[in-house]
Design a protein that fits this description.
Blueprint lengths: L1 E10 L2 E11 L4 E5 L6 H8 L7 E6 L2 E2 L4 H6 L1 E4 L11 H11 L4 H14 L15 H13 L5 E5 L7 H16 L3 E5 L3 H7 L2 E6 L2 E6 L1 H7 L6 H8 L4
Parallel strand pairs: 3-8, 3-9, 6-7, 7-8
Antiparallel strand pairs: 1-2, 1-4, 4-5, 9-10
Protein name: ABC transporter ATP-binding protein
Keywords: ATP-binding, Nucleotide-binding, Transport
InterPro entries: AAA+_ATPase, ABC_transporter-like_ATP-bd, ABC_transporter-like_CS, ABC_Transporter_VariousFunc, P-loop_NTPase
Length: about 240
């Protein structure tokens, strides 16, 4: 379980996230929605330990992100919204580097690298430099790296952007399998159709505050005049 308790993040002249509380239960695919500038990426970066928390507490499977940062980070797999990293490395060098960071044994990493990169159709490109990859291939190599150490919690920031339909389907299937094991998939997206199809629960953020958290049935019951997520989203963020 992930718990955000009264979390606040300030930037000069702006409060990006204000007194935000959110609970993400085990065994769920949890969608995180909001317009640009609503506080989604700031929240995710605090959840993953990239940004310091100004006020409040974030607990990741019982580990305090402030007090036990390294232990908390080791159980998270994080896919950022930008995949332009380590461009001078070959694909296989990047994956081995990530495996080293997480102490993945050699025999395990070789099997996982082969399995993941074949699933995403980039196995044949592992000896090429990442800077030669298309945007979609860069996204696939980052996702493969994130999953190498089999983290309990997946935190994915716009993970489907740039993926071809086959790879997008593969990743969505993997997300469902992970949640079915009793683990967490938390992802942000702008693709409302994906949220309706895939998510067990959803939260909508605007102006750094949660506007709604619950499952799709709860949300549609609360806003009975709307019959789809797009209308609900527009209503909840109309002042965005």
């Amino acid at each position: 379980m992930i718990e955000l308790i009264n979390v606040t993040k300030n930037y000069p002249g702006k409060t990006a996230v204000q007194d935000l509380s959110l609970t993400i239960p085990d065994g769920k695919i949890f969608g995180f929605l909001g317009p640009n500038g609503a506080g989604k990426s700031t929240t995710i970066k605090m959840m993953t330990g990239i940004l310091p928390i100004d006020e409040g507490t974030i607990m990741v499977n019982g580990k305090d992100m402030k007090k036990d940062t390294l232990s908390a980070k080791r159980i998270i797999g994080y896919v950022p919204d930008r995949s332009d990293i380590f461009l001078r490395l070959k694909g296989i060098e990047y994956l081995n580097f990530i495996a080293d960071v997480y102490d993945v044994p050699k025999e395990v990493r070789e099997t996982k690298i082969t399995e993941l990169t074949k699933k995403f159709g980039i196995y044949e490109a592992l000896d090429d430099h990442i800077q030669t990859y298309s945007h979609g291939m860069k996204q696939k190599i980052v996702v493969s790296g994130v999953l190498l150490h089999d983290p309990d919690i997946w935190i994915l920031d716009e993970p489907l952007t740039g993926l071809d339909p086959k790879s997008s389907y593969t990743l969505k299937e993997m997300m469902r399998e992970h949640a079915n094991k009793g683990k967490i998939v938390f992802f942000s997206t702008h693709v409302l159709e994906v949220v309706e199809q895939l998510c067990d629960e959803v939260a909508i953020i605007n102006h750094g505050q949660i506007q709604f958290q619950g499952n799709m049935a709860d949300m549609k019951q609360q806003y009975q005049e709307n019959d789809n997520l797009e209308r609900l989203f527009l209503e909840l963020t109309q002042n965005g």
